[in-house]
Recover the amino acids of this structure.
């Protein structure tokens, strides 16, 4: 089967409009928070001896926290856009689809496929002309198969998949933290803007910034909580929809995810093995997006490890020789009787 030509990334300018809109929104919130909340708290128009030192200290702390969160947000946003989520490698015999059902047993033995069709055949993509690894789906917007595809996000002009899911998850985390910081701390400036001597533009921008941060904060918080739940269940958005959405008029039963490795194991698979780097936008370094450890394979490894321990213990313990009367003789009975007990 001939593969379709790959669509070049960022080749359609119209799809940058959501990104541009989001960047403008972020810039507006940044300007409103700094210009109409932080700077007035420094009280530059008041003599030094009459300034509220507690308010100035709050301004310094809020300014530092705001720029740290905003900086991490921008880094995660850029990484989510530029990092390719991952695709099926070219010229790899494991994933090359020949158009028939003949499959090399040696190739099948080298991979661990969990997801197959109802007929038992391996899944393949008719557009890419390749067999699909587990959790891989074809994105019609990106026009390629995405490894561990979660969903296509127009706000980052990219799919959320294996290699950039951590960046997207941290983008939600820092967005929620930043928006809540703006909403809760800027409430003080909103109350001050109700003064009769406050200029109209100052009151308008304070109210607009507070309303926008509250609206986006509630919206993204709900979305972030949903992705926390997905992470703890080791599921993607597509897998959630496949399990929850009724098929053929019948509701599917929630049997959990076959890739569930426990709460801590699922977090490690998303954020990385080192807890110190969980909230830093760096590559996780776990897996390749083509093969996954499942609860079944983990159980097999545990059983193999248990057999090894049992074998070693069996080698260390020796059976005592059995006598004719059915009892077991102690080869060291005379020696143990002759040896004084140590108490």
């Amino acid at each position: 089967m001939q593969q379709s030509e790959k669509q070049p990334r960022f080749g359609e300018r119209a799809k940058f409009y959501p990104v541009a809109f989001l960047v403008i929104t972020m810039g507006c919130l940044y300007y409103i928070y700094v210009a109409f909340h932080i700077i007035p708290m420094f009280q530059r128009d008041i003599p030094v001896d009459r300034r509220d030192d507690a308010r100035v200290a709050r301004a310094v702390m809020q300014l530092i926290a705001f720029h740290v969160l905003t900086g991490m947000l921008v880094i995660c946003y850029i990484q989510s856009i530029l990092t390719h989520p991952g695709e099926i490698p070219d010229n790899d015999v494991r994933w090359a689809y020949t158009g028939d059902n003949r499959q090399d047993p040696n190739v099948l033995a080298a991979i661990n496929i969990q997801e197959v069709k109802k007929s038992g055949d391996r899944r393949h993509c008719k557009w890419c002309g390749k067999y699909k690894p587990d959790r891989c789906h074809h994105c019609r917007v990106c026009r390629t198969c995405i490894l561990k595809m979660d969903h296509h996000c127009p706000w980052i002009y990219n799919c959320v998949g294996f290699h950039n899911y951590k960046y997207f998850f941290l983008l939600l985390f820092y967005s929620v933290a930043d928006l809540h910081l703006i909403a809760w701390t800027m409430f003080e400036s909103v109350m001050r803007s109700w003064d009769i001597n406050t200029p109209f533009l100052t009151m308008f921008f304070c109210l607009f910034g507070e309303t926008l941060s509250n609206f986006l904060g509630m919206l993204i918080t709900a979305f972030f909580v949903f992705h926390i739940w997905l992470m703890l269940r080791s599921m993607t958005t597509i897998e959630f929809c496949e399990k929850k959405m009724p098929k053929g008029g019948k509701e599917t039963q929630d049997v959990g995810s076959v890739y569930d490795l426990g709460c801590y194991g699922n977090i490690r698979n998303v954020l990385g093995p080192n807890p110190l780097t969980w909230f830093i936008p760096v590559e996780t370094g776990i897996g390749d997006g083509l093969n996954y450890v499942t609860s079944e394979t983990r159980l097999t490894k545990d059983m193999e490890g248990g057999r090894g321990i049992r074998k070693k213990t069996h080698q260390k313990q020796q059976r005592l020789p059995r006598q004719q009367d059915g009892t077991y003789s102690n080869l060291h009975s005379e020696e143990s009787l002759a040896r004084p007990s140590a108490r």
